[in-house]
Amino acid sequence: MNAENKVRFDIKKYGMVIALVVIASLFQVLTDGVLLAPMNISKLIMQNGYILILAIGMLPVILTGDIDLSVGSIVALIGAVISKLLVGHPEFPVFAAILLGLAAGMVIGAWHGFWIAYMRIPAFIATLSGMLIFRGVTLVITQGKTIAPFPDSYQYLAQAYIPDIPGTEGFHGTTVLIGVLLIIAYVISEIRRRKREMQYGFLVSRGPLFGIRLAAVTVVIAVATFWFTRFRGIPVILVILGVLMSVYSFITQRTILGRHIYALGGNERATRLSGVNTKKVKFLVFVNMGLMAAFAAIVYSARINCADPKAGDGFELDAIAACYIGGASASGGVGKVTGAVIGGLVMGVLNNGMSIVGVGTDWQKIIKGLVLLAAVVFDIINQSRKK
Amino acid sequence: MEHIVLEMQNIVKEFPGVRALDNVNIRVRENTIHALVGENGAGKSTLMKVLSGVYPYGSYEGKVLFAGEECRFRGIKESEKKGIVIIHQELALIPQLSIMENIFLGNERAVKGVINWEECRRKALELMETVGLKENPGTLINQIGVGKQQLVEIAKALSKDVKLLILDEPTAALNDEESQKLLNLILHLKKEFGMTGIIISHKLGEILKVADDITVLRDGSTVEFFCPGTEEVTEDQIIKGMVGRELTNLYPARDVEIGPQRFEIRDWTVYSEEYRDQKFIDKVNITLKKGEVVGIAGLMGAGRTEFAMSVFGRSFGSRIQGTVYKDGKEIDVSTVSAAIKNGIAYLTEDRKELGLLLYESIRNNITLPNLAQVSGKGVINENEEVKVAEEYFHKLNVKAPGIQQQTNNLSGGNQQKVLLARWILSQPDLLILDEPTRGIDVGAKYEIYNIINDLAREGKCILVISSELPEVLGVCDRIYVMKEGSIVGEFLKEDASQEKIMKVIVQSDRRGRDEC
Fold first, then answer.
1. Would you call B379 and A255 a contact, using CB atoms and an 8 Å cutoff?
2. Where does B108-175 have alpha helices with state H?
3. B110 and B235 co-located in one domain
């Protein structure tokens, strides 16, 4: 009975990973190997980077049982703000413009957070209003025109690859170095964690099993590293994504704030009666969403190399869908950052794969909708079987 | 021989682990008012749910005979069709709709689905006159007071050609004048319309005024039957019937030296959140000594939970006044976290809504308010957390495969132990336990009483809120009695008895409430 429980648990945990692998394999065959070609993988990451960033920000919002419909408009607005600072002002430092853009995102997030957390406006309404307001502000700022081009150093963020160590061109020294460092960091941290658990007298997986796991992850990182060296190395955007993912995984899984976010989504009143300042938690979650939307705005505008007043249209729905596909619960309290990222990748692979095969956007939308429904149905069936 | 309109024979209703009704018999004569009395949990509401079909035929044993034929209701719709209408304590009106719309809700005067509003209005006015409600039929429900809302409910019942009207605690939320009016209306309907009624109430004075017959329920059985119409009946007789249960040794003994006074709550006053001039708690004063278990007895709705929650970080009510002293010094209880910091913990009566994170692990539930204990700079030391959670998991003897188990799969008793673990881990000096044994089995109850004794032995102050009088008498050193937001009595364990407490609660010398 115990073993059975374990298997079920694993299906829930790895269900979406398996789905991603299946979908990727399917398109790998259908596209005659184009999908997973090194160049296409880099492209895939660049194309979906901003959705993944938005999904990372959206996940805490969904965890607390809310939703944010305004992020698409925020993406457009922050892009416009930065374009006003940079385009035609070559003397303005790019770094400062980015910081100002991020700060503006947080202010917008705070605006939503104030109404939702402190004035108890339902998030759906507050952010629907924000979606209209900030799209309007964008149109005012840009006067409805596309503003371009950005300086090269700005575009670098979304379009470039990590530069090579001089003399290792073709071999991609930095990429290899990063891969090796990642493996070392992973192995050390796992060994230390195991040691600490043993000190507390907890059950740990047996030595050989532990060794196999370490070896498996090492191989995965090594293969991924090798794959990137075959094209132009690691894209800058992948580094940004990796950092954001680890930071937010850490916050949600290992900190008090993270635990409070989950608790709030699980049972708000019980959480308040446990001494948690639930309003503050909600507020911070929306401030963070604003920050992440600004991040996405920077990556997106740098990629398309202009500030488009229509930018970001529908991004909010992609980000929300990524979270649900990745196993987040619409009623709050359930979901993981890694899940949201995987959910985003599932959609990205679908998009990319179908485009290569030549499926029209009409059918792409239908299929994406069905996948979203299927993911949630899978979750619900899984839940009810557990009872 | 009078005509018996309703007869319920040998009704047995069981819930998992509890026999809520055990061979209940009740006979209601036509054109009389029949009162049903008993303590909280005696089975009155369950019996009425059987009658009205909330518990469908087949989920209970026994026979229900109405107007001479056996009834097998599968839902409220069917019982209403027969003319049995129940008005619940919590009114089932829609606040945003008008009086008229509410009266005809689910029973619209319509032709082919199109409502005839003129006919509705005419009929509504007629019904409103019958019940003595002088309002415009178009007035919204949320603009009239509770007393008038009660009248709307009765008008609604009358619109359905009611033959048997069941009123569950109809005057609980009303002031004296409104109560009188309502009781007179009931008598009027009986006399003029030949209506038969069943009234459930804790207010014995009212019952003696209106009832022709009285059935007393206790622990799911009918124990007494009175007929005030033909015999002399006193409140004392009824009270004796309600509480006449033997105290058995369900309660482990405690031998604790009670120390000096530690906590004092002085002049605690709380107003309602919705109606800001409605007083919920009125100048309550209580004290607790070191190692003392203090009880608050009272009926549901007496304000005990509201009092406790308002003390615990203002989690209930508005315009809260009063002070809390700990060891003679005033302490801050204005937020939950301040209350916890100052050594107060509150175990809720509503485990599922206000206590547990049902879809999270036992571990996360135990540590939720105590994360700072196992963290450094906001980062949780998971190993430390698991260690602490395991410790309390075993200490309280929670029966589950492990601390990673989700709490929604646990039994009520084990869920309660998880919550107790949570609050004991927060190391409180004052632990408020609100209905600590509600809905849990006898074995788990005993364990929880033992835990209470252990905490008292450690010198903590414990405030137990309970609607079960035997429990209050069994575990408390001192007992306050609360009624309508005020403390109306205080007994030492030696002087207290169920009769004495019940008497204070139900005796009709109610002090008029100055609001409503």
1. yes
2. 117-131, 146-159
3. yes
